[in-house]
Amino acid sequence: MSTFLLEIGTEELPADFARLAVPQLQALVARDLDDQRLSHGRLEVTSTPRRLAVVVDGLPACQSERREERKGPPASQGFKDGVPTQAALGFARRCGVEPAALEVRPTAKGPFVFARLLEPGRPTREVLTECIPAWIQGLQGRRFMRWGEGDFRFSRPVRWLVALLDAEVLPVWLPGSDPEVRAGRLSRGHRLHPQPVPIAAADQYGASLAAAGLEVHRQLRAERISQGIQRAAEALEGRPDLPGDLLEELTDLVEQPLLLQGALDPAYLALPAEVLCTVMRAHQRYVPLYRRNAAVDPLAFEARDVLLPAFLCVGNGSPDSLDTVRRGNERVLRARLADARFFLEADRAVSSLERREQLARVTFAEGLGSLRDRVERLEWCSQELLQALALPPDVAEAALRAAHLCKHDLVSQMVGEFPELQGIMGAKYLLAEGEPRAVALAVLEHYLPRGAADALPHSAAGAVVALAERLELLFSIFAKGERPSGSSDPYGLRRAGNGLLQILWQQGWRLDLQGLLLAGSRRWASLFPEFRIEPAALAADLGDFLAQRIASLLEEEGLAADLVAAVAGAGLPRQRLLADPGAVRQRGLLLRELRQQGRLAPLQAVVTRATRLAEKGALDQHTLSPEAVVEPALFEKPSEAAMLAVLQRLEPLAKEAAQKAALPGLAALAAALQESAAALAAFFDGDSSVMVMAEDSRIRSNRLALLSVLRNQASVLADFSALQA
User: Fold this and answer.
1) Nearest-CA neighbor of 248 among 276, 228, 226?
2) Which of 277, 337, 270 minimizes the C-alpha distance to 312?
3) Average pLDDT over residues 362-370
4) CA 583 to CA 589: how far, in whole Å?
5) What number of CA atoms fall less than 13 Å from residue 236's CA on the CB side?
6) Residue 662 predicted with pLDDT over 70
């Protein structure tokens, strides 16, 4: 068994390319080895800023043989008097076998001519030599480039290749490269040490580069960086602000990690902690240090109590130049923070109300007016939400004031330089100007969630403004006639829809989205007559969109596809989904719990049987009471009376669950249905079971009415017909 090594040596790669290229290369190599019938052991793909590397062990000397049988013409056409006809001779040529090797075998359609093919395995070295250029050219990324006079394209110029099968160099070259790149056994170490690093054999790759001071294994390099930062922070009694994306970027920026500790001028701790951390993390790739047990106030204007006057960074240089690199990093950070202090002072000279008026000079989107126009529409949405949710007066007051001021910092100098601080700086400026803390917190939270795994607003006022912000975006962009399609969603409408639903679910608010969408559509039709909006059509489009978001979020929560279909399927009325989106989620979670406990299947069996027969009746799907539709005088069997008793017991539970849609009420209805399963089953199969489709039309209709009411009561929980057996 052999070990294979491929190293693609380049100029310094963008950090995001390495992150994307590693899984691509892994998939390409694994696919082709499988297609080429090359069994293998460990397949590792790794990277440093100057290389992508593939190591595969356990490779055989050659491909496995491929045996294949091909079916040819019928025997009557392939042979005549035992002699192959032209049909058989042509079949043999296509298969690459001698005519004498053809066989005649019986099949279900009579005897046919068959050929046995045996393709011997090719040497592994030949197969790999053919595959390597395709692997390199198959990688995709942003901003690929050409260099020299060649037409070969890659993220950065390819400068060397190492391609070894054990100790043998594979004869690989990259067509179109300039200068021409041919594979050898010479790798390269760190940029500061230009002497080549010979790789004697493929299985010595990691050790050879480690001897040259490089950690080529990406995961080990990440662990080394993370552990070094944690130790250094603990020594300073600090806590590192090292999110996963920053660690990943640092891993892909260095191949010889060197941890540096820098000093931060304590005077700059008068700036907000978020400003300092944004400058350090996002712009300099430094690691800020929080005080170990500091309580972080998101509205605090200074960082003195939460940040240490120090930072950590990861270099890629020589330990001999440690002090020089540290001083350089400190100097760059001082300049950055001086700019930030200037922005802060300039912003404090202008009031938030003045900045709100300046929003009139900034266009929101073509045809949708200015940012101030958007804020006014957002305020309308907030008022509608507060009216629908009936929240306390103090919450309503804070939410309306926050909605009025929520976008003022978009024209501040600080946010202009650091867009990721929008909302954060707006909230801090408002609190510093004397606005109530609840207002400032709502402004801070109205951007939440920013993404799939982000936090949600905690305050009620913040949640209201966050809902209003997302509703305004959906109304405005849909009113323009634009919709997300495929992977194209430039306005983040799917994210907005998801955030709207997640906020409602977290707050536990019951909101009639259907009515709100119609009211909003009428409002937008009056605001934008040039769009020629049909309010009912716009509301329907938005309803369909949000219904899709409900189903998508439930799937992301881990609900099985059939459970999602049962509570949020395309066949369910939109009114039911949008009248209370929180109830849809509660139903889905309850069904999952019942299935996990083994309680769903028996209930499903009875309800599904009743539903199938109820389709033959004429009762609508909204009737939950048997009183006006079932006639006890027409009963012929005790099981019919027992069925009526079950429906009467379920009626108040079904009505309460339909009105409140809270988990206790839904669970009570499910439990009552389950307890009644025996009586329901007896209606079909017991000693006093009945023939539902009786000849007497009145008796038949009466029995169908019983089953229809049961179907309707059970449908308060779910569409049982969508559940898998």
Assistant:
1) 226
2) 277
3) 95
4) 10
5) 21
6) no
CA distance 688 to 671: 25
The C-alpha torsion from 553 through 554 and 560 to 561, rounded to 10°, is -70
511 burial (CB, 10 Å; 0-12 / 13-18 / 19+) is buried
Q: What's the CA angle centered on 532, arms 530 and 533, to 5 degrees?
A: 125
DSSP 317: S
Task: Please write the tens of the pLDDT for every residue from 437-487.
Answer: 999 999 999 999 998 888 999 999 999 999 999 999 999 999 999 999 888
For the ranges 112-121, 221-230, 282-291, the lowest mean pLDDT is seen at 112-121
How do residues 71-119 score in pLDDT, each as one tens digit? 999 998 989 888 899 999 999 998 888 898 899 999 989 999 999 887 7
pLDDT tens-digit series, residues 32-53: 999 888 999 999 999 999 999 9
- Cβ atoms 451, 465 nearer than 8 A: no
Cα separation, 258 vs 263, whole angstroms = 17
For residue 69 the two structure tokens come to 């049988």
Cβ atoms within 10 Å, residue 393: 8
251 and 229 in contact (C-beta within 8 Å)?
Answer: no
Phi/psi of residue 119, nearest 5 degrees? -100, 110
Cross-sheet strand order for the sheet of 238-240: 238-240, 287-291, 307-315, 258-263
Q: What is the CA radius of gyration of the chain?
A: 35
- Cα gap 9→187, rounded to integer Å: 8
194: its two tokens: 């230009």
